[in-house]
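We emphasize that the prediction below concerns an isolated chain of 463 residues; any contacts that depend on oligomerization or on bound cofactors are therefore not represented. The input was used exactly as deposited, without trimming of termini.
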Amino acid sequence: MSDTAPSQAAELLVIDFVIIGGGISGLTAAIGLARAGQRVTLLEQADDFQETNLAGGCRLAPNMTRLYFRWGLEQQLRDIAYMQQYVCFMRSETGESAAQGEWVHDFKVESGGVFLGMHYADFRRLLYETAVKSGATIRTNAKVASADLDAESPSVTLECGEKIAADVIVGADGTHSVSRSLMLEHDEMRPTGMVLHNAIIPMDKMASEPGLAEFLPKDGLGTAWSWAGHTCGVIGFPTKREEFHLHIYAPESGRENLPTKSPVNMSTSEELIAIMRKEGCESRLTKMVEMATRVMVLPVIDKPELDDWVHDCERYVVIGEAAHPLTTGSLYALSIAAGDGMMLGRLFSYLHRPEQIGSFLAAFAENRHRRVQAIKRAQSTNPASMSMPPGVLQAKTLKGVVESMGDAEAAWYTEEAIRDIFSVDPEEEADDWWVQWGLVEERAARILPGTFEFKILKTHSSR
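Result of the prediction step, given as a token string:
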């Protein structure tokens, strides 16, 4: 696979894209489309990309790091992230190890990438800087108020009244968004009874505490730590900000009135410690939380995935969390959002005629929808799939599995998730679609100009 987009300079049709939203999916799409030679304007409602407010730690799966490495970002990513070369699954009540090892040798990660743990704000800033260098126009303080989805010239209108037209509009504005309101009559939010706490602990404090130093990076390499309980689970990892991040899933326990429209709310270490003691978490976890300088809490909300990601006008497509909200804190959420942007950019490196736009968007939606369904299946049935700790949201169905899971079984479950999820290459899938289907359309159009039209049917019966 080449480390650049396909060379189509002589025949490439260059069109205008407007991307709504400057999160991971929107910024990755901006980079991918700009790399493909398209004109891109990204609209972000916040004022800058330097320090994302209320952001915490995030993890990036190896197949996605491989693609960012391919884009020339390997050194920049290594500068802001710890490679999570090792993994350890433990029981939250005792700290007893259920399975552990090195990703490549023991759990068969063969994608060519590495697991990375980093601060979301650092990752987002890197993507912003890369998008600007790639030629995308990034506008801040540009909140979209509405969209006019005219098939000939779709446009968005900002709160200030400015109207911006484009050939294609990409909705990457998340779960509470203009995009979802355009695609859904009723965007239902269903509380799950769970919340995610994000506790940030200075690593120098942990280094001085007996029993906690083992969780810190060694020789520049980190470990992904996962504690599993019946109704509580924890994931811990270090970042280059010299912080250790704990993602703690637990029942609401007095947080029943947590605002669902506010993505992040502040909490206290005392409140979180009380929850963890109630859940019977091991003492090392409570010690870490006692040291936390910041604790944030997010409601775990179930929101429906869109049935159709492409509007009927065939010039508006929804990607990332706007199209397919995954469980709060899921490893897959970040990777799938990035994969959406990568595939979209790669497909439009093959654009020759305006008539192809609808086919490209439909092909993107069909392919990515299948990927999201595979991830949801893994997330709901695989207790070691790394979407979240075992026991969370699946306490009844997974209780017996968690209790009986030994080293060999945990390794098998993890390898299965890796085979199904972590080896996917969105750019290769775009190339495969072009070879198998896109070229058929293109050749037919050239042989029978004006009389042949080929489209990927947006049917859902085959999913």
